[in-house]
Amino acid sequence: MQTFHCSSVLFDLDGVLVDSTRAVDRAWRLWAREKGINEEKVVALMHGVRTIEVIRAVAPHLDAVAEMHRLENRESADQDGVKRMPGAAELVCSIPEGRWAVVTSGTRPLAAARLRRVGIPVPEVMITADDVANGKPHPEPYLMGARGLGFDPQDCLVIEDAPAGIEAAHAGGMKVIALASTFPAAQLVAADVVIEELRSIHVRDDVGKLAVVIR
Questions:
Q1: Catalytic status, residue 130
Q2: Consecutive 10-residue runs of the chain (215 residues): their mean pLDDT?
Q3: Residue 19 designated active-site
Q4: What residue spans define the domains of the chain?
Q5: I need a surface site. Which of 64, 95, 105, 187 has the fewest CB within 10 A?
Q6: What's the pTM value of the predicted model, to 2 decimals?
Q7: pLDDT of residue 77
Q8: Which homologous superfamily does the CATH classification assign to the domain defined by 2-20+82-214?
């Protein structure tokens, strides 16, 4: 058993609260085929970072903003197979209001659509690709999440599923629990702890602080 004490919990979205792997994979592979880009190159880059940054990396000749909107609209319309991660609803409901946020590399409309789809409340603080100048692995998204909740970054705990997100959280001075959903545990060893499912996390109020217990 391992316990983290913090003031708030910052959740990545896809692969942590929402299982959207198949929908994301479908959208990116279709886009890559349409643009004549190697699918595997795209798939290797797409997890945990902003859509616009993937496009800039694999297709610098294209209008990245226009392609981003095209992809995000396609993903928003394709909710087939999108479902709640096991234990996600119970976990967020165990955290007091105003003590958790979502920090995602997706856009706000896409993130809100996925949360509504799986029945998880859209939190008051949600940092998306629309809000930052620098996406993960830059610390800006998580620093903004901590600021939005009103807590020091060092007093926030992050739950992530991707190496880019782990790097971003650590760069912001935060501890990280990694969920081995999108990536195998061997690729998440930079996190402070790696778990197989959210149901192993239990949160209790501990004299003003949150005690996040890994069992």
A1: no
A2: 96 96 90 94 87 93 93 85 96 96 94 94 95 96 98 98 97 98 96 98 91 96
A3: no
A4: 2-20+82-214, 21-77
A5: 187
A6: 0.91
A7: 84
A8: HAD superfamily/HAD-like (3.40.50.1000)
